[in-house]
Design goal:
Elements: E1 2-6, H1 11-22, E2 26-31, E3 46-49, H2 55-62, E4 67-70, H3 82-102, E5 107-111, H4 140-157, E6 162-167, E7 169-171, H5 182-188, E8 194-195, E9 199-204, H6 205-218, E10 224-227, E11 230-233, H7 234-245, E12 252-253, H8 256-271, H9 280-285, E13 289-290, H10 295-301, H11 309-322
Parallel strand pairs: 1-2, 1-4, 2-3, 4-5, 5-6, 6-10, 7-9, 8-12, 9-13
Antiparallel strand pairs: 9-11
Helix pairs in contact: 1-6, 2-3, 3-4, 7-11
Length: 336
């Protein structure tokens, strides 16, 4: 079996390529000519040069592929202009699905995000039935992922088989672009003076890669499946990171009202064009508990997280150290 992975040099794409190779698949990755190969330099994969925004480059990339895993997206939303987020995440998805249909690809797995489910009410868990409930300007990345899912459902109605997966915050090796691993690096450098009052669900990237294949094999077309791990407060997550990297955990947790005030100030500063180390969306979201229920993926896909968060942190930290990333500049807060 041969699969194409768009975004194959990215965090999820590279780990998915490694997992599929372990399972005996032939893997082709779509990448730009300028893409860093650090995350895939040890992998025996085919390379197709192209871009999800260039439809003509997608046809030769899909030749001979039974499956397409569409992982390409702008995930580092806090350091990317909004127009680029929308183009890549929405129009890029439309292009990939259109060419997959044209090339008679048997099945596509779309990598969405827990962000596409919005924010739960206090005391509740996100499930696959939760509608996106934020205005575009509040959280553009989440909006772009929700819109990409809507496009996928149009293609499903037209006969293309597409299964959607919604990973939570992902940690692990090969995170060369520091999508979520930046918190580990900043904790190691003692640059996190205080913690937000909310919480996140955290999952190991190897579990997410395995969940993609389970979705391909067992998922129902048109359905979304949360690929989650452990529901943690930021305090709990920081404590585990601190123990792995050998530094004290930040002692303070800021009140929610302060986080929301900081988010408002950051939004004003961003509107004025001032550079910020942390985006207003991140600050606002970090005051909430973005926790989820993964029972649907367990029941229908047989997916259950196997790697504890502490182990995912350790693997990420060891990869950074082995690749000289532990002393390089990083963004201070992870994406969702």
């Amino acid at each position: 079996m041969r699969a194409l992975i768009t975004g194959g040099t990215g965090f999820v794409g590279a780990n998915l390529a490694a997992y599929l190779r372990q399972q005996g698949w032939t893997v082709r990755i779509l990448r730009r000519a300028t893409s860093s190969l650090k995350a895939v330099e040890d992998l025996d994969v085919e390379h197709a040069i192209g871009d999800v925004l260039e439809p003509e480059s997608l046809r030769p990339a899909m030749v001979g592929c039974e499956a397409v895993f569409h992982t390409a997206a702008v995930s580092a939303y806090w350091r990317t202009p909004g127009a680029q987020i929308l183009r890549v995440n929405i129009e890029g998805t439309r292009n990939v699905l259109a060419i997959a249909r044209e090339m008679n690809v048997r099945r596509v797995v779309l990598t969405s995000s827990l962000a596409a489910l919005g924010v739960p009410a206090d005391g509740t868990l996100l499930t696959e039935d939760h509608p996106y409930n934020l205005p575009p300007g509040r959280f553009l990345y989440g909006y772009s992922k929700a819109m990409a899912e809507a496009i996928a459902r149009v293609f499903v109605a037209q006969g293309l088989e597409v299964v959607i997966v919604n990973p939570s915050v992902i940690l692990g090796p090969r995170d060369h672009h520091r999508i979520s691993g930046s918190l580990i690096l900043e904790m190691a450098r003692r640059r996190v003076p205080a913690l937000p009052p909310g919480g996140v669900n955290v999952v190991a990237v190897e579990d997410v890669a395995r969940g993609h294949l389970l979705a391909l094999l067992h998922g129902r077309s048109g359905e979304r499946y949360i690929l989650g791990g452990e529901n943690l407060t930021y305090r709990d997550l920081a404590q585990q990171i601190a123990e792995v990297v050998g530094v004290p955990a930040p002692p303070r947790v800021l009140p929610r009202r302060i986080m929301k005030a900081l988010a408002g100030a950051a939004r004003l500063a961003a509107a004025l064009g001032l550079p910020l180390p942390v985006g207003p969306d991140q600050l606002w979201l970090s005051a909430h508990f973005i926790w989820c229920d993964g029972s649907k993926a367990e029941a229908e896909l047989g997916y259950r997280p196997e790697i504890p968060v502490r182990e995912a942190i350790r693997r990420a930290w060891e990869w950074y150290q082995a690749h000289g990333e532990d002393s390089s500049k990083a963004s201070p807060v992870p994406g969702s």
